[in-house]
Amino acid sequence: MQSFTKVSFPHDGVALLSIGTEDGLNPLSIAGIKEIVDCLDRLSEQPEVRVVVLTGGERALAAGADISEMENLSLMEMKLKNQFRDWDRMAWFPKPLLAAVRGYALGGGFELALLCDMIFADPKATFGFPECKLGLMPGAGGTQRLARKIGAGKALSLLWTGDSVKAEEGFQLGFVDRVAQEGECLNETIDFAKRLAQGAPLAIRAIKEAVWHGLDIPLLAGMEMERNLFYQLFSSEDSREGMSAFREKRAPRFTGR
Ligand code: CO8
């Protein structure tokens, strides 16, 4: 069977995880999601990989869950498949995960983009949650992540109507982080990833944890978590290196220790 995922290394420290095909709609089967998670698990264990860019093809990141796989499943069959365990594992990926969306990101495809740390989008990228039109709703975090990013009312409007929006509107709403020049989305995302790959890996991870975990907890608990992460970085070699390099007016050489 042809693999749903492909990993390449366009630059030192940057892994590109591509799903589906360039011109496909790339529906997300349960096995496809498992493949993505297995890839991310492997990439999380490779110290030379500092940042991951997730992309699909020109036509779609993914047009949602594979409807042909879902349509005949009973409630109990769906529950027993326990697919959201894989989605939850994806959200624990500790390194920066950047989505480069060039075409459709619908339903589960939109959820996949939303669980990345940042969304870069081509102007023609199209985002939406059509589940309601199928008598369904998002199940892999879509209602939660979108509402946290853009507020309940705007999220409800997209979720209830199933209307899709292009990148620029997604940017105005607040869930697209960068709209790329036409045709340059992948390059621009990789360029940003290159910058992160040169940064201090432990600090970058700690910042990711502080921001995402912090959004789920009260402010004072978040401040305490931030402080603990800040203290921990003082035991890293990279913090010594970063501060010495600053004093010596040279570029730092971070090793991730
Ligand atoms: N699953 C299975 N097949 C699909 C899907 C899909 N999500 N999307 C499109 N296809 C198939 C079509 O059935 C069609 O097949 P065929 O050629 O055999 O008729 C083929 O792909 C091409 O599709 P279109 O002819 O419709 O292509 P267009 O270019 O005209 O339109 C669209 C492209 C706009 C993307 C359109 O196909 C569309 O609206 N697709 C459905 C999108 C949708 O409803 N997505 C939500 C799915 S539900 C979901 O994601 C729930 C998530 C729950 C948790 C996550 C679990 C993974």
UniProtKB/TrEMBL annotation:
Single GO molecular function: enoyl-CoA hydratase activity
Assigned protein family: Belongs to the enoyl-CoA hydratase/isomerase family.
Top-level enzyme category: lyase
UniProt KW keywords: Lyase
Protein name (database record): Enoyl-CoA hydratase
InterPro entries hit by this protein: ClpP/crotonase-like_dom_sf, Enoyl-CoA_hyd/isom_CS, Enoyl-CoA_hydra/iso, Enoyl-CoA_hydra_C
Cited PROSITE patterns: ENOYL_COA_HYDRATASE (PS00166)
Source organism, top-level taxon: Bacteria
One Pfam family named in its UniProt record: ECH_1
EC assignment: 4.2.1.17
Gene3D superfamilies, per the entry: 2-enoyl-CoA Hydratase, Chain A, domain 1, Lyase 2-enoyl-coa Hydratase, Chain A, domain 2
